[in-house]
Each structure stands twice: as structure tokens, then as C-alpha cells.
Design a protein that fits this description.
The chain has about 425 residues and is α+β, with helices and mostly antiparallel strands. It has 12 helices and 9 strands.
């Protein structure tokens, strides 16, 4: 998929392509749908050692999360298979709505045929809204939709690669060594607490206090690609669910971009290893030193937006979500329409990953935090704003969410340790 070229911050008409990777070649991109077309249900398992991501051999399995894509070119299905009047509504109404729907599901999950039909009935013009089965003869609608969803995911991966280049320019990082050190600093910790999540950092009493989770320049810029894709969804058709799947894809895309620059220069693996695909960046089984290890990257990131099972509160509050959306909207010419509260998707609620841990994203009022900092060490306050002062977010403290994240540098292939044949490790 490609978005029309615009200046930074401008809206763009959304254009769709095939299944190529970010480099635009003709290799198929192994995106994921359920083997039966059902939404994938990812079951969280116990957490183990934290490992830094590495490019490893992926072992194909028969599980639902590894399914080869259908190729429009091979099947000969194109938008032209639909009547001309239907083509316009398909592009302008159905696809933006189905992308919004998919963005509320677990990352890498695609709607099943019943969910496609329900969305078709909800948003298409009156003269064709009851004719989904007719137009889907030969799975035309299903195939075209999957192509657009693959393109949407690819666009998020591309946006992160573009955003990291802009970030380096903003930070004045011109040499490979400067970029290497910056990437290492931003990717320290584990999936709960990477510094690149946050828009601000404040030094106080020898500790770093963080502000604006998932509102950093690079995440906001990347996530804005999703908002651009759903810009044509009208207010009365908007869903009330939070776009957790789209946000998780954005975080994964950003982490992938940082990984490509871990040496200070951009190094993209060849072939499928370089694709932004579930087989590489989703929950997956890999073989490390002869042992099958489960990486739960998608499940772990979704836990940021799940419920704290001990306190029974959302780890990411509604106020935090509003600020996340607002930060991303600053990269568009105009904000997306606001959803009506009574409009909900027909999909089942995604299963809540339950890592059985008592943690959430802290939500401290910025004025209160700054007042505390000034009172404690007025001469030592240092603030950094990755959003260049544009984000008016609440400051949050990134406390010791995971003590195991400390002193992780230099560890390699931790997932291969242990006595069991199959292990579960966290990714990112």
C-alpha cells in the first residue's frame, strides 16, 4: 500500500496496493487471518525472562496465527470485478469502516465473513447494503478486503521507518554512532517501560519521571497513519471501542524501526524477515539452540490496554487514551470525527491478556509532578520533550514496573535457558 506523498502533517487520500513489503517488491507478505476466518484468540501465558528482539528463524506451524495470504494477482480478483457504483462506496465507505473495526481487534487479527457482512450493511448505501452475498460471489469482497487490510498494516510499518528518520533529524543525530547510542538508550527495559513510549522525561531526586505514554513523536506519527486510514468514517458510523490493535501495531512498527537502526545504520533483513508481518513481529514460535520458544510480543503489548486483574482498573485510563488520540491527530490537517458513545462494533470483545501482575500506566497530574520536582531539587530539573513541546500531556512516573528490566543489556537468547523443551518468553 502507498499513501500519496504529502508534506509533514498533511492529510492524504488513502490508496491501496498489493501484498508487497515495505520495499514494494512482488514478494507476498505473510499477513495473518484465522485459519477458518475467525478472529484469532490469543491466550496469555505466564511471563518468563525478558529478551531483546533478535532476527531468528521462524518455524511455520499449523496454529491459527500462521496462515499464508491469498494473492489478488494469482486469483485474478480486482476492484474492477465490482460494478463501478459499488467500487466507489467500497473504497470510500466500506474500507475505512472495516479498517476502524479491525483496528479495535487484537493486532494481526482480521474480521470474519459475518463481521464483514455486518459492517457492509451498516455503512454501505441503501441500494446495495443488503447485497453483500451477491457481490461476494467467489469471495470477491473477502479477498479485496484482506488486500486492503494487508496494505493498511504495511502502511503502519512504512510510517515508522519514515518517522524514525524524522526523529533522528529532530534530535540532531547525524552520525551512525550517535544514532546507535540513541537507539540503545530508547530501547532499554522491557515491553512495559521502553523510554521511546513517552513524550517527556524529567529528572528528579536521581530518578527519571516519564510523561505522556504512547505520545512520543515517533509513536504518534506512526499511529497517525491509522487515523488517516479511517478519516472518511463519519461520526455516526464511528465505533466507541479504543483502537488497541492499531496502537499495538504502531508500537511494534516503531520497535522494528529501532531494531533496524541498532547498529546506527539502517539494516533491513532480506526476504520475509524484513516484512512487517505477524510471522515475524506477532506472537510466534521460534527455535533457539534447538528449543522451541514462544515469543508473546502481541499479547504483551495488548496488556498495556487491558485491566489490572488485582485492582480491576484499566491500565491505560480513558484520559490517557484521549491524549494518545490528540497527540496523533496533531500530525493530520484535521482531527478524525468523534465516535458516538452508543455505536459499538459487533465483534466479540478481545480476550483480556492476564499476566497476573498488579501494574498500570501511572497518571500523575503534570502540574503536581512539576511542583514536586521544583520543591525537591529546583536546580536539577531537566525536561526533555520528544514531541517538541506540542503535546500537552499529563506527566506519569515510569516506576519500577518490572525490576527484571534492569541490567538486561548484553544478554542474548535468554529464551533458550531453562530445562523445559517449550518455553514462553516476552518479546520487545
Amino acid at each position: 500500500m502507498k499513501a500519496s506523498e504529502t508534506k509533514d502533517g498533511e492529510d492524504a487520500d488513502y490508496e491501496y496496493g498489493g501484498f508487497g513489503d515495505e520495499k514494494g517488491d512482488d514478494e507476498e507478505n505473510p499477513e495473518v487471518t484465522g485459519a477458518t476466518g475467525r478472529s484469532i484468540k490469543i491466550k496469555a501465558k505466564s511471563l518468563a525472562a525478558v529478551v531483546q528482539p533478535t532476527i531468528v528463524k521462524v518455524e511455520p506451524t499449523n496454529s491459527e496465527d500462521y496462515v499464508a495470504p491469498t494473492s489478488i494477482k494469482k486469483r485474478g480478483i480486482r476492484l474492477g470485478n465490482l460494478p463501478e457504483a459499488v467500487q466507489t462506496a467500497f473504497k470510500d465507505k466500506f474500507i475505512p469502516a472495516i479498517i476502524e473495526f479491525t483496528g479495535c481487534l487484537i493486532a494481526w487479527t482480521s474480521p470474519n465473513v459475518n463481521e464483514l457482512e455486518q459492517t457492509w450493511e451498516d455503512v454501505m448505501p441503501e441500494d446495495i447494503c443488503q447485497r453483500f452475498t451477491e457481490f461476494n460471489t467467489g469471495k470477491v469482497i473477502e479477498t479485496l478486503t484482506q488486500d486492503r487490510l494487508n496494505s493498511w498494516r504495511n502502511s503502519i510499518g512504512k510510517a515508522a521507518l519514515k518517522a524514525i528518520e524524522q526523529l533522528f533529524q529532530r534530535e540532531g543525530l547525524s552520525t551512525p554512532e550517535e544514532r546507535r547510542c540513541y537507539v540503545k538508550e530508547q530501547t532499554t527495559g522491557d515491553y512495559k517501560s521502553h523510554p521511546y513510549y513517552y513524550s517527556h522525561a524529567v529528572e528528579m531526586n536521581g530518578k527519571t519521571m516519564y510523561a505522556g505514554p504512547f505520545q512520543s513523536f515517533i509513536i504518534s506519527k506512526t499511529f497517525s497513519e491509522h487515523l488517516k486510514a479511517i478519516a472518511k468514517v463519519t461520526a455516526d458510523q464511528r465505533l466507541s471501542e479504543r483502537p488497541t490493535g492499531a496502537m499495538v501495531l504502531s508500537i511494534l512498527a516503531v520497535h522494528r524501526a529501532f531494531t533496524f537502526y541498532s547498529s546506527g545504520n539502517e539494516v533491513i533483513p532480506s526476504g520475509v524477515d524484513g516484512h512487517f508481518a505477524s510471522a515475524i513481529w506477532g506472537d510466534r514460535d521460534v527455535t533457539l539452540e534447538g528449543k522451541v520458544v514462544r515469543f508473546e510480543t502481541t499479547t504483551n503489548l495488548h496488556s498495556h490496554f487491558a485491566v489490572n486483574p488485582i485492582k480491576n482498573i484499566n491500565r491505560c485510563s480513558a484520559a490517557q487514551w484521549d491524549r494518545i488520540i490528540q497527540s496523533a491527530e496533531k500530525h493530520l490537517l484535521k482531527p478524525v470525527s468523534k465516535p458516538k458513545l452508543n455505536k459499538k462494533s459487533t465483534a466479540s470483545e478481545p480476550p483480556t491478556p492476564d499476566p497476573a501482575e498488579d501494574w498500570e500506566l501511572p497518571d500523575i497530574d503534570p502540574d503536581e509532578l512539576l511542583a514536586q520536582a521544583k520543591h525537591a531539587i529546583p536546580s536539577e530539573i531537566a525536561a526533555s520533550a520528544q514531541d517538541d513541546g506540542e503535546n500537552d500531556s499529563r506527566d506519569v512516573e515510569m516506576s519500577a514496573l518490572n525490576e527484571n528490566a534492569e541490567s538486561e543489556e548484553g544478554r542474548e537468547d535468554e529464551g533458550s535457558e531453562g530445562s523445559g523443551d517449550d518455553e514462553v518468553v516476552t518479546g520487545l
